[in-house]
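Entry 14. Structure prediction run on the chain below.
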Amino acid sequence: MRRFFSAASALAIALAIPVTATSLSLPKLGFGKETPAPAVAQLLKPGEWAQAHSDVAPDPSIRFGALPNGMRYAIRKQSIPPGQAAVRMRIGAGSLMETDAQQGLAHFLEHMAFNGSKAVPEGEMVKILERLGLAFGADTNASTNFNETIYKLDLPRTDDETVDTALMLMREAAGNLTLDQGAIDRERGVVLSEERARDTPPYRVYKERLDFFLKGQRPPTRYPIGKVEVLQTAQAGEFTDFYNRYYRPEQAAVVVVGDFDLDAMEAKIKARFGDWTPVGPAGPPPALGTVEQRKPEARLVVEPGAPLSMQLAWVRAPDLQPDTVAKRKQDLIEQLGFSVVNRRMQRLARGAEPPFLGAGVFKTNEYDAAETMLAVVNAEPGRWRQAIEAVEQEQRRAVQYGVRQDELDREIVEYRASLKADAAGAATRTPARLAGEIVASLGEREVVTDPAQDLALFEETVKALKPEQVSAALRAAFKGEGPLLFVASPKPIEGGEAALLSALEASRKVAVSEPSAAAEATWPYTSFGGAGKVVETKDAPDFDTTFVRFDNGVRLTVKPTRFKDDEILVRVNVGDGRLDLAKSGQNVNWQSAAYVEGGLKQISAEDMERVLASRVYGAQFGIADDAFVFTGSTRPEDLDTQLQVLTAYVAEPGWRPEAFKRLQGARRTAHDQYEATDSGVLSRDLASLMHPGDQRWVFPSREQIASAKLEDFRTAIEPALSKGPIEVVIVGDTTVEKAIDAVARTFGALPVRAETEIPAAQREVGFPAANATPLVLTHKGRADQSIGYIAWRTNDFFANPQRARDTAVMGEVLELRLIEELREGQGATYSPSVVYNHSLVWPAWGYVSASVEIPPAGLPAFFTDVKKIAADLRDKEISADELARAKKPRLEQIAKARETNGYWLNELSGAQSDPRRLDATRALISGTERVTAQDVRRAAQAVLRDDNMWMLEIRPEAGK
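Output returned:
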């Protein structure tokens, strides 16, 4: 299903304003006084789907149904990838349905679904799934929102045992939970840990924003995480009350997509859920409140650690009309208008003296409580006034003068390219994606359609569409109570809210002029000289992969696949990445985003996007350990364009200073944002701590960010980019012949590239020495937030590949033990985590780590518990069951990953220069299968030693 606007909460994504203006992702804004009369929602009867009240035809490949008890189900056969399935159960109840005494229990109840039912004892559900190859978190998960709770299982196989077990567990969660008081008490710490981890500056800003925009309405009083005092004290009776009132068949929908027989699956669902009978009276729907009449207002929230962000909002009654063809057409026309406005905003952000870092406009339904029109802006601290003026005036310019034909044409072309790509790849969508689309439609009361239907509707809508129609839609959209101006700032603003409102009113008095049309441009990079000649070709039949070398030294690796129709992934490795950088020089990784935004020598990024609007391509740049990496995703008909773009970025980058200055401005508050939470400090500092004495991993200081120069960035990476070796990896829906031809005319046509020798000293990296007492870092967040971290040094992968695989399985066992002890046993934390890494690049460098989020008082016990678990793994062999629960999910994850283009793009990268990587890929599954309990114990004895343990604590700073 493809809709043309975002249905997510505008407030939840308010801080995610990127440096792009992709047409299909950004929506709207408004300026007006009238509040339309609220539409009356078409309530679905038990068992009804949205198509019962719509003229939109549902996706014909989905079988929709309902049981006599009112439970809905939707099933769809999807045999690509083979043998997999996605199972989802949606309960149409979330935090909005809670009483005052139940705040947080909808989410807490989601946790309890894993903690005991009539057929499954407490602590056994996850183990049952692990034995079937499902990993906790990756394949077994759940989520709770304001208006829904969703349970998710991704099945690695569709045999009867796996499917029957999955449906049994969903049925247990639906109506057979025991909700034992002891189990609830044991889970409290886990939920409280999740509350601590989520309480970040962006989340606190989000809550303030929702409270301001939805004044007097229910959503701001019912956040899914709830209230701490309720989480600490709520008794089983409150859980049971919510469970009986809202976990009912008429509130539920089961969705199953995968490689199975439809009739057989339908019979299984009917047999498993047909006896579900509700207990007691149903809970009432929540009273959401009405949108208040409001004049222009401003709210200022000072939140240290948050970036400067602003929103202009116009709030009105929600649009609860049923999903119809006419409504979809109108939504599309509106969205085209919003995309034009967003494109103009992007142009302003890319200017020499941009008034903001990024801005976008869109419309959203706030959980049926209100419809909100939003303009969201991120700006540098101290530049709030310029940002407000620019966004307000650009909005009025759009309303006053409308859109031009050339602007509309550009958006239509880009929409069409994206929708065509979706339709071409529809047959190979994953079960998880398809199931997610069906579940998402339920919350919005939408009819599920397939990409071909969406493309047809689009073509019908734009066939005779005029700019005047889009302009009229823009004007009609910008109405509602307000405007309401919300500003979140890391520092106080002089004059406070009065100053903000005064600036807005002053801006509204400034006359705006008609927008000017962009200058004509053409794509200048269609030729790079004579096509290169192939001088060597080798095949790896077991990988269905071909290796090619051109006469200029460029290497090409091609793997044709049918994992996903119409998708081709391209990766270009140039030079040697971090290995090329000075060990004593400033880390330039943070500057990488400015490279692509800087455009090309002969054309800017903005003009390039415009002239290539009908093409599907990508351009990303990053610095890996062993290469400077350019990546893109395209379709067969645009492979030439994709390679032209990436070749041009390698051969003639634009190095425009505007992009660098914009990135630099965005990074000015980076340290404040990192230091606001324990996880932020860990994210910023861990890499440098794990590579002591090497500046290549050190995040720059505030002063270094402020004084950074584009010239220095260019000096650091340009030599490798202009002269270093080039490897092109192409994976996806293409042929070897087509890939060779396209690369020959692009990268193969470049001047000769020679191999480089890396000095041995560049490969030498350190590792932190074991410590008897933890290193302590501090953060500026909540006093009850802290992280404990342990790392044990291992080795690089190639030192002993099988030992690395043994150690990986040992790491999986360690995580099982941590979850069982710290989460399930003690209820001390939400997310104990184990990570293992055996480097393919850095000799003698690798590690296994264990970490936990926990209140500071619990840190000593964490280190003690981990030492005890490590000692037990050293001293005793694990059981056959524990070994299976560690290995099976890992093996299934590998098998699933091998059915994706992304996996092979990564695995084949670097394989020509280091063939050992191919051997590692060949042996990954068999080498993991052969790991025994004795191997796990030997790995623990070699690695999990107290004298090999480096410890770190991140605590609140003194006085917190």
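The two ends are 48 Å apart (CA to CA).
Filed with the rest of this week's runs.
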